[in-house]
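Lab notebook, bench 4. The sequencing result for the construct came back, and we need a structural model before the next group meeting so we can plan mutations. Quick request posted to the team channel:

Model the 3D structure of this chain.
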Amino acid sequence: MVDTKKEQEREELHRAIWAIADDLRGAVDGWDFKSYVLGTMFYRYISENIASYINQGEIDAGNPDFRYEDMSDAEAEQAREGLVQEKGFFILPSELFCNVRAKAASDENLNETLETVFRHIEESAKGSSSEGQFAGLFDDYDVNSNKLGATVAKRNEKLVKLLNGVADMNLGDVKEHDIDAFGDAYEYLMTMYASNAGKSGGEFFTPADVSELLTRLGTVGKKEINKVYDPACGSGSLLLKAEKVLGRDAVRNGFFGQEINITTYNLCRINMFLHDIEFDKFDIACEDTLTNPQHWDDEPFELIVSNPPYSIKWAGDENPLLINDPRFAPAGVLAPKSKADLAFIMHSLAWLATNVCFPGIMYRGGAEQKIRKYLVDNNFIDCIIQLPSNLFFGTSIATCIMVLKKGKTDNKVLFIDASSECVKVTNNNKLTPENINKIVDTFAQRAEEAHFSHLAEYSEVQENDYNLSVSTYVEAKDTREKIDIVKLNAEIAQIVARENELRAAIDQIVAEIEG
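Done. Here's the predicted structure in token form:
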């Protein structure tokens, strides 16, 4: 059943976000601008989060009228150390979002005020166990950027609008988790900017329907998991889906990810906080996963979900150390330098995995065929799913999902042709809940269905030279009109007989005229 109140609140929130973007359009390119909106939302969120936490503690201690927002900075300082240990950060009362916003319109140095506040928040975590989660979080929030305005006054005018716009958003009480308004607003912003971005915004964002499908495939039969990992985590949408699909406390030991792009890495950490994931429950690293993986001490992971970048370049055999790397060595060959797709899959398999893949890796020859042979011969491939085209922002290609498993009970590979399982929404295709259910149910039951799925024996894959394209195994439905030859011949005979009758009648008329 759809919660109408929740849906109305969500629509209201989306309208408010759109209004901010519309109000500041032209000043900052949409894709750059999201950093300002998300940064301001994050600032509001952690301000309300820490104030609510302190106020609740005081209320529980019998001080019902206490408000951290009204405290002096000097008094608050006494609680700094304890709060950093408990919450991972500290904000002075004067630097809380609500108090900075209240004075913003009359603050001629608003840009400097915000810069100082952000620096203080990041510095509050220094030397503590949460330092890595907060370092550089506001790096993309440049209060002195010309993109905000040519003069300090113009920039501050935009910053006031930004603070007011985010303050007016109905984001609910931070203690209420049912609406998940902050997280929802984040996803809406990412979708909005990814679909409108002139740049390839889609590379930072896996649409919610694809995230849902991947996570459900990876959690079939599971009620909880130890840890979830994404080796190319982008803004973290796939990691957070695990919590949404399984439930709030079902990811026992946290969320792990690695991202090479620093802006997206910052967005991912902000996304964790906005979804109320505590600082000690996530570990996101900014490095090249293929050549410098950061989570050796945390693997293996019970669930790995990933939408790695399609066919990017990597070091490959230029780096002599990689062929001996325990992640890549078992296949005896490295993925080509110009196409790193199977390197991500080998990395994930080493730590265990489910991946969205570029279709080319399923059939290309050379090193990629040798890696596919290794995966099939060792019975790691559980299922290949062909998805519809146009699911992702910035690319129209029809992607595939490769599900890998260790310790399979049979040596068969399930192939699913889900290329028609979608509805068209504006310029993109979208997976509906019914589409997702059909794919997941077929996967869970390893069911065969004509023109949709086929459970291939190992020998069949071997005979096809380890080609893993779904179209090789699942015959497409013949949608051409079926013709009954016997019936057609009878109709032709009738036409010929009638033609002969008419010809005879015409001959007779001609003969009469001439006679």
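Residues 197-203 have pLDDT under 50 and may be disordered.
Will bring this to the meeting.
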